[in-house]
Structures are given as C-alpha cells and as structure tokens.
Design goal:
Elements (H helix, E strand, L loop, with lengths): L9 E9 L6 H12 L9 H27 L6 H14 L6 E7 L4 H11 L5 E6 L6 H17 L5 E4 L7 H11 L9 E7 L3 H6 L25 H16 L6 E6 L11 H7 L7 E5 L8 H4 L1 H12 L4 E4 L7 H17 L2
Parallel strand pairs: 1-2, 1-3, 3-4, 5-6, 5-7, 7-8
Helix pairs in contact: 1-2, 6-8, 6-12, 9-11
Length: about 350
C-alpha cells in the first residue's frame, strides 16, 4: 500500500529513545546526563535531580554503561540507531512523503529532523510524528511528544505538527508482534515472559486523570476507566492479553514482568527476580520478549539476552530463547505505514 498524494504537503518523523554517540565513557556521561536529567524520567525537583544525576548516578554508571554498550555495538553503530534508520528507509520506500528520524536523547535531534524535512520539501505544511513507543508512559511516549513540541515552539516552522497516539492495541501492531512470536511456539517451552520496561508506581498515579483509579486495586487495570488512556500498566497488560489471544496461548503459560528499574517503588514483579525464581518453579525452558521496545537496544540485547539469560541458566534453566524486537519486520513496517496513513487521512 502506498500513501496517496495529498493537497497539503506532509512529512513524517519517527522518534525513538536515542543512544550515545560512541562507547566512550565521555559520550556515555553526556548521554546519561541528558537522559536522567529529564524531569519525566526522574521526577524530582531540579536541584535534587542534579545532585543525584551529576553527583552520584552518572559518575557511577557511565563506565559500566560504556562496557555494556561495547558488548552490543556494531560496525554500523548503536543497534537502536541502526534499526531506526532501516525502519525509516523501509517506510520511505512505501510512501511519497519525506520520512526523517529523531531521537529523544542524543542525535539526530528534533531540530535536525524538522530541518531535514523542510530542506527536502520547503512547502511542507504538516508533520506527522510517530513516537516509537507502543504504550503511554511519562518517561517514554509523553517525554518524546513534549520534546518535539518544545523544539517546535523554539522556531517559527512553516508547518503544523500532530502525533500518532500510543498503538498498544493497534491490530496491525498486534499482528506483527504475534507473528514474531509464532515460530518460537514450535520449540519446547514451559512459559513465555513478557518483560516490559519498568516505571515507578508514582508515574502511574501521576498520569491518572481521575486521581483515584490507578493502582487502587489489583483489578484496576481491568476495570473500565478514563485513566486507561494514560496508564502504562493497563496498556502493557492489554497488549499481552490481545497477543496471547491471537496465538491461543492459555493464561497459565505466560506472565508479565518489568525490567530496568532504578531505585525503589517500581512496578513489580521484576524481571531479574523472576528469572532467578522460575527454574525453581519448574519453568526450565523460557521464551522471553520485550514488547515495550520496537527496536533492539541495550535493554534487550545486553540486559535480557546476555545478563538475563545468565541469571536464568545459573538458576537451573535449560533453554532461554530471546525473541527479537520487531525492528524492520515487514509486518511491523506494514503497521507503521498503516498508522501514519491513518493519521494523514484523519487530517484531511
């Protein structure tokens, strides 16, 4: 399917998380400082956040993160950047509108993407922005949107901007995710673990537009509420359930966990803890995937495929199969095309 030409000139930006420029410790310091000083990631007053980030976290984590990135770095560079560029190329081959990419942290910046679009077509009147996050969270989708808006406000660009909403229950996305899992179901497995990026519980409460629904009961995610539009836990549960329904996987064969926590009070159960517990529960052959990410990155390739596997196997596991992110899978490209096309049509 090719996007139809439109009377008003349009462009597309795909925005992803970002990556350091290299595996040098200095570049990790720069990247982590930008990332962790984001008030939607560490939601503390600026002074306290600066003391924590610049005085404690970055000096301690930068050398370790540099070593972790070295394990996954490719000749082309950071996997997340490489996969995002390849997704851009795959989408551009299908649509007439110019497609650019931006990163929330690092390069290319929002300004770079806006400038690239206007250089390619000075007559652009509207830019459709797709944050590459399936689920709404302060520290992912929300900060990407606000970052693009803030950069937009800084200059008098000759176009308007609009955003594709979180696509956690988009049928094309769910079909792509289910198809990526399907081949692995032919293997011997005891359980499928859906490992999502963790967020602090307070972020869930802050995003609750009702002020009285989220995390008030174990069943809150299954109880209809306007809060679900911005509730990360509800949305990851919904994605998991809908994918497993498509694959006819019974509820006793899968579960959800949360990885990459930083501090206390984050959503549970924790992935690393579950990986250590599962073999003792008779789960020896594990399938694991990370649906919060659409591009393989440090959190999937190093944290789960390397360190996670080591935890599981050392605890008595027998097989550990990491299902890759969607990256540039043709069905995922179909989903991206469908989402931006739908946004274009909505704006007609």
């Amino acid at each position: 399917m090719t996007m139809a030409s439109t009377k008003t000139k349009k462009g597309i930006i795909l925005i992803n998380l970002g990556s350091p420029d290299s595996t040098n410790v200095s570049d990790l310091r720069k990247y982590l400082d930008e990332f962790l000083m984001d008030e939607r990631v560490i939601d503390k007053p600026w002074l306290l956040r600066a003391l924590l980030v610049k005085g404690i976290i970055v000096p301690f984590r930068a050398p370790k993160s540099a070593e972790a990135y070295k394990k996954i770095w490719t000749e082309e560079g950071s996997p997340l950047i490489v996969f995002t560029k390849k997704l851009q190329e795959a989408l551009q081959a299908r649509v007439e509108e110019p497609v650019e990419i931006a990163m929330r942290y690092g390069s290319p910046t929002a300004e770079d993407a806006y400038a690239a679009l206007t250089k390619r077509n000075p007559e652009i009147k509207e830019v459709i922005i797709l944050p590459l996050y399936p689920h709404y969270a302060m520290s992912s989708y929300e900060t990407a949107v606000e970052h693009m808006r803030e950069a937009y406000k800084q200059k008098k660009y000759p176009f308007s901007i609009s955003f594709v909403p979180p696509f956690y229950k988009n049928g094309f996305y769910l079909n792509a995710l289910a198809a990526s899992i399907q081949p692995c179901l032919e293997k011997k497995y005891d359980h499928i673990l859906f490992s999502y990026h963790g967020v602090p519980a307070r972020h869930i409460r802050k995003s609750d537009v009702t002020g009285c629904h989220c995390l008030q009961s174990e069943a809150c995610c299954e109880t209809p509420s306007p809060a679900h539009q911005f509730c990360y836990r509800h949305q990851v549960r919904t994605t998991t359930r809908l994918v497993c329904e498509r694959l006819k996987i019974s509820p006793d064969k899968y579960s959800i966990s949360f990885q990459s926590r930083l501090g206390k009070g984050w959503l549970e159960p924790f992935t690393d803890v579950r990986l250590a517990e599962m073999p003792k529960e008779g789960i020896k052959n594990l399938l694991i995937l990370c649906p919060a990410f659409v591009s393989d990155c440090l959190e999937t390739l190093e944290e789960i495929a390397m360190r996670g596997k080591e935890i599981f196997m050392n605890a008595g596991g027998e097989s550990f199969t990491m299902i890759p992110c969607l990256n540039t899978d043709p069905l995922w490209v179909d989903a991206v095309e469908q989402m931006v096309t739908a946004e274009v049509m909505n704006d007609e």
